[in-house]
């Protein structure tokens, strides 16, 4: 079969690889879509420590089960599934206190083992969630990132009637915006420097989409009850920390460069009783993400591009340009015509 292979940091290309076979407890999924995300860029660039090269990346995948290994009863051949790529060890301190996303022995599909930028992939059956036939292909491919946003929402106090400010109008920021809206936000505004993204954000139902929080009455005034960073960019984080209303919450949702530090005023955190919290990946949020989509949340407009496997380079260039939204790779697209 064909798959995108990262042989070493900086070297990535579609290649012929052996078809996967299911080990006991595994199934083989014929991948219909797999989302490209920042984590893949870190794998391509070699900045993500647990990766063992060569690796087939891709952790936001959906498709159809085409083969099941020994002992597998669910899912069955023919089932449409979304795959939770995270595989906590179950044995470390954090797994045993019920915080598997903080696992000390982190393994994940598309990171430490073959992922979804391939025609087929073998995955543990327990990572598969059967999804309805009614889901659009775009929605099905967005379940994994949405489950990250659901976990982020779960980390927030979720009090109705509060005003939210989100930094970053990319896919993750807009998913968070859609979710906090369903959780009873009084208003949701977004800050981004990219005008193209801001124009889309306005069409996506944001109350305000601006290049600086100074342009917002609450930004200049009392601040927002909840500020979410979905950029990982230090200037955005520092600006956002200063826009939290007294008694409010700041959520670090974006992935920052591990080497960078952000400055904040400890006095402000003390005197205004600001909660600073973090949210990392997926935690008990995969099924809820599916259920939110099934309830009618329409995220299809978030997918801006779909490329075949052989166009992976073009997809990466488009991602790095930062002008689109979610990019999906459809590994079997060429075959299906
Ligand atoms: Zn991702
Ligand atoms: Zn663990």
TrEMBL record:
InterPro entries tied to this protein: ADH-like_C (IPR013149), ADH-like_N (IPR013154), ADH_Zn_CS (IPR002328), ER (IPR020843), GroES-like_sf (IPR011032), NAD(P)-bd_dom_sf (IPR036291), Zn_alcohol_dh (IPR050129)
A Pfam short name: ADH_N
Co-factor(s): Zn(2+)
Pathway it works in: Metabolic intermediate biosynthesis; 2-deoxystreptamine biosynthesis; 2-deoxystreptamine from D-glucose 6-phosphate: step 3/4
Domain (Enoyl reductase (ER)): residue spans on this chain: 10-329
Any coiled-coil regions, as ranges: none
Entry-linked SUPFAM superfamilies: GroES-like, NAD(P)-binding Rossmann-fold domains
EC numbers, comma separated: 1.1.1.329
Entry keyword annotation includes RNA-binding: no
Keyword Metal-binding: yes
Catalytic reaction(s) noted: 2-deoxy-scyllo-inosamine + NAD(+) = 3-amino-2,3-dideoxy-scyllo-inosose + NADH + H(+); 2-deoxy-scyllo-inosamine + NADP(+) = 3-amino-2,3-dideoxy-scyllo-inosose + NADPH + H(+)
Keywords associated with the record: Metal-binding, Oxidoreductase, Zinc
Root EC class: oxidoreductase
Residue ranges of the region described as Disordered: 1-23
Described purpose of this protein according to its UniProt entry: Catalyzes the oxidation of 2-deoxy-scyllo-inosamine (DOIA) with NAD(+) or NADP(+), forming 3-amino-2,3-dideoxy-scyllo-inosose (amino-DOI).
PANTHER family to which the protein is assigned, alphabetical: ALCOHOL DEHYDROGENASE-RELATED, L-THREONINE 3-DEHYDROGENASE
Family, per entry: Belongs to the zinc-containing alcohol dehydrogenase family. DOIA dehydrogenase subfamily.
Protein name: 2-deoxy-scyllo-inosamine dehydrogenase
